[in-house]
Write a structure and sequence with these properties.
- Helices cover 34% and strands 11% of the residues of chain A.
- With 484 residues, chain A is α/β, with parallel strands linked by helices.
- Chain A has three domains: 54 residues, no CATH class; 254 residues, Type I PLP-dependent aspartate aminotransferase-like (Major domain) (Aspartate Aminotransferase, domain 2), CATH 3.40.640.10; 128 residues, Aspartate Aminotransferase, domain 1.
- In chain A, strands 1-7-6-5-4-2-3 form a seven-stranded mixed beta sheet, with helices on both faces. In chain A, strands 10-12-11 form a three-stranded antiparallel beta sheet, with helices on one face. In chain A, strands 8-9 form a two-stranded antiparallel ribbon.
- In chain A, a hairpin with a 2-residue loop joins β8 and β9.
- Chain B is an alpha/beta fold and 446 residues long.
- In chain B, 36% of the residues lie in helices and 14% in strands.
- Classes of the chains: A alpha/beta (484), B alpha/beta (446).
- At the A-B interface, α1, α2, α3, α4 and α5 of A face α1, α2, α3, α4 and α5 of B.
């Protein structure tokens, strides 16, 4: 049962109610610090009982759609099922209660876990070194680009420009910018993959690196990547690979073997740690041998079965954040990797690609497929088949909500007009995909016969279409009693 | 494999529908030269019971349960009410993506709006974003915000800022043509007036000061704000122990411009340092468009009903690409939900009580330790941690370890020249008997 309207927690507040249980103070109460440092009262925090808190957040939970509830084919996000065993292992007290400044002999389990995960990711991708500290994909990109810059600096010239294909995720140019680079966009071409000839046209002594996603955001494998890597290397430039779509390659391709210099993975995508509504994630970065010296500190070293963090690394890019990254996320990814095994991962890749191709095959006569090149784990359709009915991509997406299905990623990649980017992942059955395909066809029919139905969608969600323009025009970012 | 829901028959039917004979054929767009010849191998897959055994063994190699811990320094032990675990573990909070489709994400969005309200009110500010990775990156993002709005590239950072925050800031600003200088601290552990006066001028874009600082001392922002006066320099307050806000004056009362920090204390375990919860708040509407990361705002739906959406997104990387205010995309969304629940549980009264207990217990320990003749390094006021001095800090630390006590953090780990300092932390979870035991052990090993 979904409540029609759940108030804000502040609207449940009444003076004198409380939900906490704190032991009595066992030392003498005294005034220890000057009065002028103390705050008079804590305004604007709730006063509610435990039962109200439970009902409130349970009601809010009901307002959320999630992978646990159903199909979530967000392209480029790899919304695969999140195994429940992950939460069990990551919830063990010995991990939860370990403090980052514990003496190293008390946290050998943690340090060993980090090293074990590094080693498995190395085996999977071919890179000899990994850093697990970046807290998300974009954070990994920044760490990776900083390493590239540092390496170029050590060689004498950091250079000025990073090349990025027009199909890239927005974090790529943003991360390059914060690593101190200008960004030059390059066209990814009619076939949907980058040609080595195109890259050559843009190369000069200012080019520090090329950042490419493989398979790219169209789901297309970058078939000239090896040649591109060679060309870049001849120019003294590096190749960064965004591994957000690594779910398409496990067991088939080890990016290090292609000449990729730096790669980031998303543990919250490919390795099943949950997305949590937008984090915490983890964006480990794998690097080629020559980058060892610039890895972020600390680097965990094993000596005679003892694990120790090494902070004394003069050429390191330094610390990328506090402590050891989103450690809890690392436990979950390791759990998944150990359960799947190498063969299981390969199977996951195969089923992910099969599922995506099944959708492609069954929707391509209804929706417009702008790129005919073979795709791997995802498929992108354009607005061209329904635009003529006055219907937009967003309307298709919102109508899907009425059918209880989460919409695909919309309006991305930018090179496809009104893009619908669908990534089913391997953890969906043919039955689920059939329902999705039928629903997509039905919606297309509705677009033709009753476009208003789509433009006013969703009709059956906890709230109707929300006014995003108003939200940005008159930003209201916190609750204020007096206004209500 | 229990996570693959397709039967053999379904797979066959799907292959047929796609028009290929085998799954491998679907990979024909990958040139053979790109396929690995090196089989991936890292051991046999493990069953669920084997996995539990594996991780219990690893967990067992962490010896944290047998020790009395007096650790803080940016990561704190506080009691987390069971209801925080129970509610935050709901699949509806754990397994959705970023709320791109607000109509089916009102749970995450409303909880985030509630969190933004709570963290804004606690820091005394008007606007909060929906989280950053951690306190260190939040400090860096705070500095970068000041850099954008002031267009000045010189900064001052209190030397007493968390050393890992300082390192992270260095990494973040290194290639952006930004410089900074440290402001030293005095005998009381607070920002030195002399050094401040020497280094402050109108060319400074912002000043970052942490309170309570890394040595546990509560700073006095008042004179600092007075000195800044009418100049355009921004005062950026950093808070690594947000529980202090339960009892200490919020930075807003001193006219601070931006508050950043880590809210790990609000419902997150130490967890070897992560995930934690970075935050940034401000009251200046002009800064809103320069804020990093996601922001949730209130609006109405087509029927006029209240609802929540991600907003002001033209600041962000997916729209503004290399000109975005930050490269951040995924943040610490689930930690936000935990913080909202934690703060709802403790609420107005509980948070104050919790903060008060921290303050009183730490000051009790400080008094006892002073009584046994151990030097307290700084005489400034403290919240829940402070620095003591022994002849050889690391040796003291080691000796107490033999007694199953982790006596804080030897400062030499961060400042190689500091052989005497130890940062000790006391929260509500440290019982009096435990504190007395520590004091006794210190007395025996001065």
């Amino acid at each position: 049962m979904i409540k029609d309207r759940e108030p804000l927690i502040f609207e449940l507040t009444e003076e004198g109610k409380s939900g906490f249980s704190i032991p009595e103070l066992d030392v003498e109460e005294k005034d220890h610090i000057p009065e002028e440092l103390l705050r008079k009262e804590l305004k604007g925090l709730p006063e509610v009982s435990e039962v109200e808190i439970v009902r409130h957040y349970t009601a809010l939970a009901h307002y959320n759609y999630s992978v646990d509830e159903g199909f979530y084919p967000l392209g480029s996000c790899t919304m695969k099922y999140n195994p429940k065993i992950n939460e069990k292992t990551a919830g063990l007290e010995g991990f939860l209660l370990s403090h980052p400044y514990s003496p190293y002999e008390l946290v050998q389990g943690n340090l060993k876990l980090i090293k074990t995960l590094e080693n498995i990711l190395s085996e999977l991708t071919g890179f000899p070194f990994f850093t697990l500290y970046p807290s998300a994909g974009a954070h990994g990109e920044l760490a990776g680009m900083l390493m590239i810059r540092k390496k170029l600096e050590l060689r004498g010239n950091p250079r000025k420009i990073v090349l990025i294909p027009d199909s890239a995720h927005g974090t790529n140019p943003a991360s390059s910018h914060f690593a101190g680079y200008d960004v030059k966009e390059i066209p990814s071409g009619k076939e949907g993959y980058l040609k080595v000839e195109t890259v050559k046209e843009y190369l000069n002594e200012d080019i520090a690196a090329l950042m490419m996603t493989n398979p790219n955001t169209l789901g297309v494998y970058e078939r000239e990547i090896k040649e591109i890597a060679e060309t870049l290397h001849k120019n003294g430039s590096y190749l960064y690979m965004d591994g957000a779509n690594f779910n398409a390659l496990m067991g088939y391709v080890k990016p290090a073997e292609l000449g990729v210099d730096v790669l980031h993975l998303n543990l919250h995508k490919t390795f099943s740690t949950p997305h949590g509504g937008g984090g915490p994630g983890a964006g480990p970065v794998g690097v080629a041998k020559e980058f060892e010296e610039v890895l972020p500190i600390p680097v965990i070293k094993e000596m005679d079965g003892k694990y120790l963090p090494d902070f004394n690394r003069p050429n390191s890019i330094g610390k990328i954040r506090s402590f050891y990254g989103n450690f809890g996320v690392l436990i979950k990814a390791l759990t998944y990797l150990l359960e799947m095994g190498a063969d299981g991962l390969k199977k996951a890749t195969e089923f992910a690609v099969l599922n995506a191709n099944y959708i492609r095959e069954n929707l391509k006569s209804t929706y417009e497929l702008p790129y005919k090149t073979r795709t791997l784990h995802e498929v992108v359709f354009s607005e061209d088949s329904f635009k003529k009915y006055g219907v937009k991509t967003v309307d298709i997406a919102k109508r899907l909500l009425d059918y209880g299905i989460h919409p695909p990623t919309v309006y991305f990649p930018l090179i496809v007009h009104g893009a619908l980017m669908i990534e089913p992942t391997e953890t969906e059955s043919k039955k689920t995909l059939d329902i999705f395909i039928e629903t997509m066809k039905k919606i297309h029919k509705e677009a033709e016969t009753n476009p208003e139905l789509l433009k006013e969608a969703p009709h059956f969600t906890p709230v109707r279409r929300l006014n995003e323009v108003l939200a940005a025009k008159k930003p209201k970012l916190k609750y204020k009693e007096e206004e209500e | 494999m229990r996570y693959f829901p397709n039967s053999e028959n379904s797979v066959k039917a799907m292959l047929k529908s796609v028009g290929v004979k085998s799954v491998e054929e679907l990979f024909s767009s990958i040139p053979p030269s790109n396929l690995t010849k090196d089989k991936v191998d890292y051991g046999k897959p493990l069953s669920e019971p084997d996995i539990i055994e594996f991780f219990k063994k690893l967990e067992g190699e962490n010896k944290v349960k047998d020790y009395k811990l007096f650790l803080g320094g940016g990561s704190y032990f506080h009691h987390i009410p069971e209801v925080v675990n129970y509610l935050s573990m709901k699949g509806e909070f754990v397994t959705p993506y970023t709320p791109y489709q607000p109509e089916v994400s009102q749970g995450t969005l409303q909880a985030t709006f509630e969190y933004q309200t709570m963290i804004s009110n606690l820091t005394g500010m008007e606007f909060s974003n929906a989280s950053l990775y951690d306190g260190a990156t939040a400090a860096a993002e705070g500095l970068l915000l000041a850099w954008r709005v002031t267009r000045k590239n010189k900064f001052l950072i209190a030397k007493s800022l968390h050393p890992e925050y300082i390192s992270t800031i260095k990494t973040y600003i290194k290639n952006l043509n930004i410089e900074f200088d440290f402001i030293d601290y005095d005998e009381d552990g607070r920002v030195s007036k002399d050094d401040f006066n020497k280094k402050f001028n109108e060319e400074i874009g912002g000043i970052l000061i942490q309170s309570p600082n890394f040595f546990g001392i509560i700073e006095d922002y008042k004179w600092i704000k007075d000195k800044i006066g009418e100049s355009k320099t921004l005062l950026i307050s950093v808070i690594a122990e947000t529980l202090s806000l339960g009892i200490l004056k919020p930075p807003s009362e001193f006219g601070t411009d931006v508050v950043v920090g880590d809210a790990q204390s609000f419902g997150l375990y130490p967890y070897f340092g992560g995930p934690t919860l970075g935050f940034i708040t401000t009251s200046n509407k002009k800064f809103l468009w320069e804020m990093p990361g996601r922001i949730v705002g209130e609006t109405v739906d087509a029927e006029g009903k209240r609802g929540f959406v991600l907003t002001l997104s033209t600041r962000e990387q997916h729209i503004r690409r290399e000109r975005a205010t930050s490269n951040i995309c995924s943040n610490q969304a689930w930690c936000v939900i935990r913080a909202a629940i934690f703060l709802s549980v403790y609420g107005k009264k509980g948070l104050r009580e919790l903060a008060k207990q921290n303050l009183i217990k730490a000051n009790y320990a400080k008094k006892r330790i002073k009584e046994i003749g151990i030097k307290i390094r700084f005489n400034g006021p403290i919240f829940n941690e402070f620095v003591i001095e022994t002849e050889n800090a690391e040796e003291t630390h080691r000796k107490l370890l033999d007694k199953k006590i982790v006596a804080g953090i030897p400062l030499r780990w961060f400042y190689p020249e500091d052989e005497k300092g130890i940062l000790l932390t006391f929260t509500e979870v440290n019982k009096k008997a435990e504190i007395d035991e520590l004091v006794k052990a210190l007395e025996e090993n001065k």
